[in-house]
Amino acid sequence: MDFRDDLYFLVLTVSMEAGGEPYEGKLAVAYTVMNRGKSVIDTVLRSYQFSAWNTDSSTRLGIDDTPIAVLRECYKASCAAYFKLSEDPSLGATHYLNEEVTRKARGGTLPTWFDESKVTARIERHTFLKLRG
Predict the structure, then answer these.
(1) Distance between CA atoms of 97 and 7, rounded to whole angstroms?
(2) Quick check: 2 pLDDT over 90?
(3) 40-59 in b/e burial notation, b at 16+ Cβ within 10 A?
(4) Which phi and psi (to 5°) does residue 128 adopt?
(5) CA 121/CA 119 separation, integer angstroms
């Protein structure tokens, strides 16, 4: 495999995880993947790390229906993060979540790994945290 495989998986991940976010949000999600320090494929396909890749993800089933304009913007953000062509709006984050959606799914709570003191940025609906390094 080479960088094109990683880039392809990064684009799909950004599309599924942040397709409805503005460009800055897409870029921050792409950087969060890159900030993990491993290959993109190993990072995004690791169990329960990026919910869009979970077996039961409804988002994953909609990849083919993603509008081309959204895919283009996700590709742009992914390239910018992968090749470090732009500043990292997540400020070094290694994790993120949508607090509202997460609370709804968990009966009002956030995961045990959520630590307000580790929040690096809030961009639209995503909260970014630096939990490693």
Answers:
(1) 22
(2) no
(3) beebbeeeeebbbbeeeeeb
(4) -110, 140
(5) 6
pLDDT tens per residue, range 64-119: 889 999 999 999 999 999 999 999 999 999 999 999 999 999 999 999 999 999 99
Give the total number of structural domains in the chain.
1
Structural domain including 68 reads 3-129
What pLDDT score does 67 carry? 94
Structure tokens, 49? 């790390």
85 within 8 A of 75, measured Cβ to Cβ: no
Q: Residue 31: pLDDT band by 50, 70, 90 thresholds?
A: very high
- Residue 128 CB contacts under 8 Å (≥ 6 apart), including other chains: 28, 32, 90, 91, 93, 95, 96, 119, 120, 121, 122
Q: What is the CA radius of gyration of the chain?
A: 14
Tokens of 128: 């970014």
